[in-house]
Amino acid sequence: MEVMTAQSTAVRKIIPGKREMAEDRIYVGLDIGTTKIAVVIAREDQYNQLSIVGVGTHPSTGLRRGVVINIEKTVDAIRKAIEQAELMSGHKIHSVYAGIAGDHIRSINSKGVITVSGKDRVINESDLFRVVDVASAIGLPMDRIKIHVLPQEYIVDDRDGIKKPIGMSGTRLESEVHIVTASASAIQDITNCVHQAGYEVDQIVLEPYASSLAVLDSDELDLGVAILDIGGGTTDVAVFFDGSIRFTSIIGLGGQSVTNDISHGLRTPMEQAEDIKKNFGCALQSMIEQDELIRVPGIHGRAPREISRNVLCAIIQPRMEEIFNLALRELEKSDVFDSIGAGIVLTGGASLMPGTVELAESVLGLPVKLGSPVVEGGLAETVRSPMYATAVGLVEFSRKSADGSPERKEDSFTNRIVDKVRRYFEDLF
Question: Where along the chain do the CATH 3.30.1490.110 domains lie?
């Protein structure tokens, strides 16, 4: 069983002249994306106030669809992004909470049941360990690792919908959990890149789950909400209902697919296609004035060309429609799709393109909004953008993991994940 203890190993820096009991805690989120590496450093003071104190970004060219394909380039990008955040914050970082995505991610809901063994049949923390252990005991191929076992609800005898059963009386305890698994080699590659950059990995965290911690509130979680995190290489899907995660999925298309289409359609290099997308792109062709012109730079001394912005959007819209149609197909697989009362929240850098919200509403048939991290203090304004949702969410996950309360312990089953992956490969070879 993966250990339930969630005591954070995030970096802690003792402020000179202060007692240990008054030390500040430092939390670090590392978003290893297909097109960019983003790092957020936050400090929590003795009054539990959280401030963003460091932000670092660097272009990423060593990944494809969330999976490392070039170790050297990924290591260099991680190192430079973290060093930038360190310089800004004034803190030397030793370890990080790292996000993971990619179409190798799989998830499943599972159930477990035990007989309550405590005195007078009162449920205690040991019972929670046992029932979640039973629910998470599923067979996996040798090349897959569980990265999360997230309790959804408990059932005590015939009473369901229980979130915190400790202290309740009963003879039969059931648990429903959401299990997320990933490719062991993908986890190992990410871990190796962080290590080679000179840092330790405290924990591997599913990116859409991390993003949800930054952009969703309790009302949305209870009413039912889906988050679509449109990154560079993948679009990450997560569905929540009744306060718990119910479904996760990864789509192997993202903003880079749009850039690639522009590059081919306008016969321009990827770098220039990315700039054109950011400066003039629109996901909904009907929002564009018919006579609006944009300039496409020439290649290798060729003269620049002028084209209608309408032509650019005619390239972009079909790919964005495809992404949302694939997302709709995934959402319909969830058991709670009809219960998404709060609608859809879009995050990720690609969601910033004008017309994206309007197109998403048209395809998905649900209310859609942009989701930005809800943070205060320090450099909060810098990260209050959908493109930082995952990195800020990783900070929030780290902070929750540092809380030793039983309800927070249930959030994390991956404190030993790096050691598990290392042992897996040692046994394999």
Answer: 106-182
Give the CATH class of 12-102+188-204+374-428. alpha beta
Name the CATH superfamily for 218-372. Answer: ATPase, nucleotide binding domain (3.30.420.40)
Query: Please, which residues have CB within 8 angstroms of residue 275's CB and are 6 or more apart in sequence?
Result: none
**Cα separation of 131 and 173, whole Å?**
7
Residues 6+ apart with CB under 8 A from 191: 98, 201, 204, 418, 421, 422
SS3 364: helix
Alpha helix segments (H runs only) across 197-340 = 207-215, 218-223, 255-266, 270-280, 309-331
* 98-111 pLDDT, tens digit each: 999 988 999 999 99
344-367 per-position pLDDT tens digit: 999 999 999 999 999 999 999 999
The whole-angstrom distance between residue 242's C-alpha and the CA centroid of its chain comes to: 20
pLDDT tens digit string along 170-196? Answer: 999 999 999 999 999 999 999 999 999
Strand partners, 150: 178
Instruction: Report whether pLDDT(163) > 60.
Output: yes
Token digits of residue 19? 């007692």
**Selection from 106, 108, 109, 320 nearest residue 228 by Cα:** 320
164-190 residues labelled b (16+ CB within 10 A) or e (exposed) = ebeebebeebbbbbbbbbbbbbbbbbb
CB atoms within 10 A of CB 298: 12
Using CA atoms, how far residue 246 sits from 31, 103, 280, in Å, is: 23, 18, 37
Question: What is residue 297's DSSP assignment?
Answer: P
CA atoms of 133 and 128, how far apart (whole Å): 8
Q: What is the DSSP letter of 164?
A: -
- Whether 357 and 238 have beta carbons less than 8 Å apart is answered as no
**Ranges for all domains in the chain classified under CATH 3.30.420.40:** 12-102+188-204+374-428, 218-372
Structure tokens at 378: 């320090």
**Tokens matching residue 426:** 């040692």
Q: Could you give the maximum distance between any two Cα atoms of the chain, in Å?
A: 84
Output the CATH code of domain 106-182: 3.30.1490.110
